[in-house]
Amino acid sequence: MSIVEIKIPSPGESITEVEIGSWLKADGDYVKLDETICEIETDKATLPLIAESSGVLKIILQEGETAGIGDVACSIDIDAIQPEKTAAETPSASSETAEVKEKSVSTADSYSAGHPSPAARKMMAEQGIANVSGGGPGGRITKADVQEQGRQVPDGVAAAESVLQMEAAEASGSRNKKRERLSRLRRKLAERLVAVKNETAMLTTFNEVDMQAILDLRSQSKDVFLEKYKVKLGFMGLFTKACTEALKDFPAVNAQLDGDEIVFHDYVDMGIAVSAPKGLMVPVVRNAESLTLAQIETEIGRLAKRARDNKISIEEMEGGTFSITNGGVFGSMLSTPILNPPQSAILGMHNIVERPMAVNGKVEIRPIMYLALSYDHRIVDGQQSVSFLVRVKENLENPTRMLF
Predict the structure, then answer these.
(1) Cα 389–395–399 angle (5° rounding)?
(2) In the structure, what pLDDT confidence band is assigned to residue 379 with cuts at 50, 70 and 90?
(3) What are the strands of the beta sheet with 55-59, ordered from one edge?
């Protein structure tokens, strides 16, 4: 018997231990080379554990266990032969049909049992009768069953109590509870969010943007843009470009606090918040200030897909200097985004709604988006934060000037 041990890989330099999230294969299953067999949870992301050989799986570390880098999570017997499907495992058409018929009959019986017909229900309510045994097809309660029960049920208080019992039984709903283990990523996220509120002087400033120029630009250019660059022209790319241009004039918004020093960056590593199955993730577009709009859109699409597929790496989420989050895709009108430490600011996008607006002395209906900039007041002054957001607004309302 030849055994291959699968060890916990190193997700990154700063991570020394992980948690076994969930096994995608059961103990004793036959797994194939390069197949994902388990999800490993770290403080920053959920990462896949890949089968390094084909064979029969032997699980060593169970779900929820904490493991160090290099610990053996499972082993694979590479000498085992892949099992073939037997006839018993492949149901025939006749057996499937019989099974469907059996399920239909049992479903109908279970529904009819104990349920009164409309006429029987009316009679039960009028006579104050409950707990009638059904003698009809499938156990259904008929008028004859109610009449028979009526001869045995006393009048007055007992009848009224029976009606109340029947109504309470019909009105009662499910009160089940379900418990799920909080993932390591979610626990760490909770800790970070609380720390941001307690350890930073976070404030939020707001502004509104007339999105008509952006909508016109996308409408006019989306087909040509897609044909030329093989990627869609989206809002996130334009907002990223608007922010990188504004950050050149307001470097404190792109800075970080390190002890008694402020660290300024001459580059923009733009964090893009993505809602993934395992929680919020913020992959980073490196040197976004030097990329074209097409390059930004391509990189955003690549990172967002990897995040949603739970394939994003720790390196792809580390080192951001500024972040953008878009609650508008979920219908948010206005919110105060929370900082992504150690960054000093984050921009929140929201939904686009047609609103009345004064334009050249006249009221017009315009597509308006509210913007929110949360910032750490220890680093960014009020004047800087407001001026930065105004610059972003100007860039978005004059996109051709921003791009060319």
Answers:
(1) 155
(2) very high
(3) 3-7, 72-77, 55-59, 30-31
pLDDT tens across 85-133, in order? 655 455 554 445 444 444 444 444 444 566 676 667 667 766 767 677 7
Residues 42, 312: Cα–Cα separation, whole Å: 12
Joined together, the tokens standing for residue 139 give 């156990």
Q: How far apart are CA 169 and CA 166, in angstroms?
A: 5
pLDDT digits (tens, 9 = 90+) for 248-259: 999 999 999 998
Catalytic residue among 34, 79, 109, 381: 381
**d(C-alpha 312, C-alpha 284), whole Å:** 11
Domains of the chain: 3-77 (2.40.50.100), 117-158 (4.10.320), 202-403 (3.30.559.10)
Question: Residue 377 catalytic?
Answer: yes
Catalytic residue among 79, 109, 155, 377: 377
Residue length of the chain:
404
Side chain identity at 304, as an amino acid letter? A
Q: Check: CB of residue 80 under 8 Å from CB of residue 56.
A: yes
- The Cα 349–Cα 123 span in angstroms is 60
CB atoms within 10 A of CB 309: 11
pLDDT at site 103: 46
Query: Crossing angle of helices 143-150/118-127, nearest 10°?
Result: 20
In this predicted model, what pLDDT tens digit does every residue of 208-220 receive, in sequence order? Answer: 999 999 999 999 9
- Count other C-beta atoms under 10 Å from residue 214's C-beta: 20
